[in-house]
Amino acid sequence: MAPYISHTGVHDHGFNTISTYGNLLRLMIEGKIPENPWERNYYELALKLSGAVQAARWTKTTDGGFICSFNGPHSLFVDTIRTIRILMVSHLLGHVLKGEGDIDISLLERSILHARSTAGYSVYYGNGRDAYDVRGRTAHESIFNTYDGNYRCPNAQQGFSGYTTWMRGLAWAMCGFAEQLELIENLSEGSLSSFGGKKNIENFMLEAAEATCDFYIDHTPLDGIPYWDSGAPELYKQEKWQEKKADPFNPNEPVDSSAAAIGAQGLLRLGHYLEQKDGELSKRYWQAGLTVMNALLDEPYLGSDPGHHGILLHTIYHEPKGWDNKPDKKLAAHGESSMWGDYHMREAALYLSRIAKNEKYYTFFGCLDPAMIK
User: Fold this and answer.
1) Residues 283-304: tens digit of each pLDDT
2) pLDDT at 237 (0 to 100)
């Protein structure tokens, strides 16, 4: 992981660094691994530097800016809503990005600007942006003119098209906005007043979280396991697919259980966040998240073959490029696991386990001393 910390060419520091050094620091804070001052300093330094390196990958727009994807400065990925976790943690550890002329660039400001860009361009709200503007759908990639900073169009890399919803991209947005709401709720008004104010930030994040979670609920089968894209071209052949459980062994389109593992956490976290704000809406999202987890924690999704290294089966990497496992050429890709699928399956299980055991609530910022979160 050490070379990754200074990797300037990617948009996913918030996935990988929080998931490794962040969890190590959390485990040390919780007393689950031995205290070691040298290691603690190393973990903190890794988190600080990773946040700054990620924030430096910046594209300015007419109304703010965003952390650009590995496709280049024109490209905003919906996935990257989850990478701003590392900017937030780095900021709360007291770090800044130093720019030309020794200026201090706020990591908190860049994280909020990126979230605004994602909510404003990657997520749709049924307001007539284009002919396919359905509330809650997401575009995997949003394209910008790097000369003048203007938005140009939606696009897709791993989805079917820019006008359909790649379901794992949707799940990243669901989880990303929900977990950011959990942190914003714990920050002071004073720390956010320069960036639009706490209420304003909570409002746009909550609108995006609810819209994406609603789309997921409305565009998945009964068990909450989605097919890989809402507009997958052969999905119409799966007769009444929304009225029954997903079928990973069908001949038409693959399911993506990794999207379900990520999306479940978004549903659960949003339900928990709303518990004291809107009880009925809270139950809707919480129950939907439990429904997804109930399916994932059983066959055919939970791996039971001791000869297979994966935990979560039937995940999809890149359907348009044909990179996924097809053990039977007559069927859609199925049967394989992935790093992000297994990780998020375990994380969602840990999240629920802690709640069931009345243990400390699990967050990405659990790697910080509570006194730092202000």
Assistant:
1) 999 999 999 999 999 999 999 9
2) 97
Mean pLDDT value across the chain: 97
Note if the bond before 221 is cis, omega within 30 degrees: no
CB 121 within 8 A of CB 149: no
Say if CB 337 and CB 155 are below 8 A apart.
no
Contacts of 125 (CB under 8 A, 6+ apart): 133, 135, 136, 207, 211
Segment 202-219 shows an average pLDDT of 98
- By the 8 A CB rule, do 167 and 256 touch? yes
Residue 363 has what pLDDT?
97
Spatial contact of 157 and 74, defined as CB atoms under 8 Å apart: no
Class level of CATH domain 220-359? mainly alpha
How far apart are alpha carbons 203 and 205 in whole angstroms? 6
Confidence of residue 42 (pLDDT cuts 50, 70, 90): very high
Q: Domain spans of the chain? A: 220-359
DSSP, collapsed to helix, strand or coil, labels residue 184 as helix
Would you list the DSSP string of 10-60? Answer: -S-HHHHHIIIIIHHHHHHHTTSS---HHHHHHHHHHHHHHHHHHHTSEEE
